[in-house]
Amino acid sequence: MFVVLAIVFAILGGSLFDVYETSDHDVTVVFYAISLFLMNLGPNTITFMLPAELFETKNRGTCYGIAAASGKLGAILVQIAIKRIRAGGTDKKPLAGLLLFLVPVMLMGALIAAIWIPEVQYPYGRVREYSKFDNRSLESIAEDPRKDQKVGFRAKMRKWLHLQD
């Protein structure tokens, strides 16, 4: 969904640059509505679906709180970043520049989601063996934290490169 949002923001920002001081905003309005729909369908919804899929019932409420707080903190940080770096420029087309600024942000979100969010859709398939956490004691984790690592960037790179320990 992040990649689709990046494409939509690129089209939206580009179309707004072209029609900024005209009355031909049909494409811009349609893609703006699509971007709002996709934002609520994708990143906003997944924030509350992942805790339900990944955590036990007794921990789920805490994870919902962490997810909600992270979303609010992200919104505050984006507002501060936009003010500091003057995203969108200082010319008369600041909204178009801001929408184009969001394209790499969405692609970074896609990369982070691909690397760190474990697969939950196929709980009994082959994908599950690479996305579950092992039951290891704290002592064995302290001795060798990377032993049998199945999630995270390092584990995925080792699998993609077909490396063995």
Automatic annotation (TrEMBL):
Primary site of residence: membrane
Signal sequence residues: 1-17
Places the protein is found: Membrane
Organism: Didymosphaeria variabile
Gene3D superfamilies registered for this protein in UniProt: MFS general substrate transporter like domains
InterPro entries found in the cross-reference section: MFS_dom, MFS_sugar_transport-like, MFS_trans_sf
Keyword Transmembrane among record annotations: yes
Pfam family, one: Sugar_tr
Gene Ontology terms: cellular component: membrane
Record protein name field: Major facilitator superfamily (MFS) profile domain-containing protein
Keywords of this entry: Membrane, Signal, Transmembrane, Transmembrane helix
Lineage: superkingdom: Eukaryota
Keyword Transmembrane helix: yes
Transmembrane domains' residue ranges: 27-50, 62-82, 94-117
